[in-house]
Amino acid sequence: MGLARHGRDIAEIAGNHQILVTVLAPAGPLPPLDGARELFEVPIQSRAARRRVGLDVSVEHLASVIRAMENTGATVEHVYDY
Question: Which of 29, 37, 40, 69 fits 74 for a cystine, CB–CB 3.0-4.6 Å?
Fold first, then answer.
């Protein structure tokens, strides 16, 4: 995530071109995200104003998705490298 925050892009992760990312997001719709598709959404009982969202992200768009999520107040929870 540090790479994304410093304007860097990512070409591949462990040979994968698609990656699962979970974010802790505020209630409401996510912004349009190029290269990402929402897979699931789960409420977080201990934090009613937040929800966990799973995203299928193209690795080439990963850095821009991270930046977009952080700009909306979401926190990237985990990037799964399968």
Answer: 69
Q: How far is residue 56 from each of residues 8, 10, 47, 74, 80, measured CA to CA in Å?
A: 20, 15, 24, 16, 10
Helix, strand or coil for residue 4? helix
pLDDT recorded at residue 11: 62
pLDDT given at position 2:
57
The answer to whether 68 touches 23, Cβ cutoff 8 Å, is: no
Report the pLDDT value the prediction gives residue 36, as an integer from 0 to 100: 96
Q: How far is residue 6's CA from residue 41's CA, in Å, rounded to a whole number?
A: 28
- Ramachandran quadrant class, 80 (left: phi over 0; alpha: psi -120 to 50; beta: rest): beta
Q: For 4-31, how does the pLDDT look when each residue is reduced to its tens digit (9 = 90+)?
A: 565 656 666 677 789 999 999 998 888 8
